[in-house]
Design goal:
Keywords: ATP-binding, Hydrolase, Nucleotide-binding
Distance between the termini: 38 Å
CATH topology of one domain: Rossmann fold
Helix content: 25-40%
CATH class of one domain: Alpha Beta
Pfam family, one: NTPase_1
Order of helices and strands: EHEEEEEEHEHHEHEHH
Largest sheet: 10 strands, mixed
Strand content: 15-25%
Number of strands: 10
Protein name: Nucleotide kinase-like protein
Shape: globular
Radius of gyration: 17 Å
Number of helices: 7
CATH architecture of one domain: 3-Layer(aba) Sandwich
GO molecular function, one term: kinase activity
Length: 230
């Protein structure tokens, strides 16, 4: 099934809001009984420059600081970032290959030059792409796009360029892929819980943050507590 299961790759340059685009796409699927695993990595800015990243476990809503530009002798150094051992362990647990019977969508934010050098999430990605997996969504910087596709031999990439793509259309395409994944599981005899609505009648749910009083401009992707500022 994995040879035919798409990997959606949200791409753009640094600062072109790849994570924000992903965040919005997930906001439109989380209310549709979609079982999501993986990580989201919102960045932090200090004095006009990227200063670090927080990691969000999409299955649990838990979060952990991943890395920063502040020197720390306990940390792994990649580029100008110091990766905290707790953050790396947290992310690697979140990216353990999922049970296909219990996952509809796998998310990796982001796949970058450190992974292409064999670091950070490289081992987890290696395992994910060689095992049966549900549809995946990655974020990848544009200049690394072709290299990432070739490196992991992605046979069915769906490239989503944040400069021109529609969040709504992308969410609809992701939901179509999830429907196909679930139908394939049903044909193979695996039990899967139903998705609401019909196969060709995707209507995006109300953004999860709206029910909690969050601004419509900063929707939460989780039913609990995460927002870009929180």
């Amino acid at each position: 099934m994995s040879d035919q299961t798409p990997v959606f790759i949200i791409t753009g340059e640094q600062g072109q809001c790849k994570t924000t685009f992903l965040h919005l796409v997930l906001s439109l699927t989380v209310g549709a009984n979609v079982r999501i695993r993986g990580v989201l990595a919102p960045g932090h800015v200090r004095d006009g420059r990227r200063s670090g990243f927080t990691l969000i476990n999409l299955a649990t809503g838990e979060h952990e600081e991943l890395c920063s530009i502040d020197p720390d002798p306990r940390c792994e150094v990649h580029g100008r970032y110091y990766f905290r051992p707790e953050g790396l362990a947290f992310g690697r647990r979140a990216l353990v290959p999922p049970d296909p019977r219990e996952t509809d969508l796998m998310v990796i934010d982001e796949v970058g030059r450190f992974e292409l050098q064999g670091a950070v999430w490289a081992d987890q990605i290696d395992r994910l792409v060689t095992l049966p997996h549900p549809p995946m969504v990655w974020t990848v910087r544009r200049r690394l796009l072709d290299t990432a596709i070739q490196n992991w031999e992605i046979r069915n990439p769906v490239v989503v360029d944040v400069r021109t793509a529609s969040v709504m259309a992308t969410a609809s395409d992701v939901m179509d892929a999830i429907w196909e994944w679930r139908e394939a599981q049903t044909r193979s005899g695996l039990p899967v819980p139903p998705l609401p609505g019909g196969r060709n009648a995707f209507e995006p749910p109300v953004l999860a943050g709206a029910a909690a009083g969050a601004s419509a401009d900063t929707p939460t992707i989780l039913r609990r507590r995460y927002s870009p500022e929180g």
